[in-house]
Structure to design on (186 residues):
């Protein structure tokens, strides 16, 4: 990523965070300030925070040349202290068309991996909406150990080691248009 592109991307993310949708996302984590993190209880035995910056550059296989370079997103996750509940809020904007599917996949950076949790679309899951929001949208929900696609202790360990990613698909980019590796907030 070039320095200019990085600054533009940072400005886009900041603008998204400051928007009305961003206010709702920040409410999920109590604000991304030291005080907010302290209020969330980031000590041992307390909930853990994770984040993902979604872009077109990390997709495997690469996105179509017609994909707008304005597409981006941001996600925040909160894992319960007992590892049985993962709350999430994922915002995205500027896709080439409406989102057709969104998932959490198992896989490292540069790897294509299998779906472990449907966020919208297919494969169907009772906990996920059948329709995705559109070319700009928010996906919020909770993934639990009791879901049809359960959050297992094994997947919690994979999550803690940055082995999961968010993928948002469109008609133009059926394999995925936006991707972001889920990493711990440190």
């Amino acid at each position: 990523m070039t320095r200019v592109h990085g600054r533009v991307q940072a400005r886009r993310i900041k603008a998204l965070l400051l928007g009305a949708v961003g206010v709702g996302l920040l409410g999920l984590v109590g604000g991304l300030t030291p005080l907010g993190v302290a209020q969330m209880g980031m000590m041992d035995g307390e909930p853990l925070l994770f984040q993902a910056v979604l872009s077109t550059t990390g997709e495997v296989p690469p996105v179509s040349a017609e994909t707008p370079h304005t597409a981006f997103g941001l996600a925040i996750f909160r894992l319960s202290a007992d590892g049985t509940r993962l709350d999430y809020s994922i915002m995205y904007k500027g896709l080439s068309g409406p989102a057709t599917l969104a998932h959490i996949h198992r896989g490292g950076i540069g790897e294509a991996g299998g779906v472990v949790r449907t966020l919208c679309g297919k494969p169907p899951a009772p906990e996920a909406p059948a329709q995705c929001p559109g070319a700009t949208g928010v996906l919020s929900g909770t993934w639990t150990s009791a879901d049809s696609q359960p959050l297992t202790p094994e997947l919690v360990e994979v999550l803690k080691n940055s082995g999961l990613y968010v993928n948002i698909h469109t008609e133009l980019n059926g394999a995925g248009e936006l991707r972001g590796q889920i990493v711990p907030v440190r």
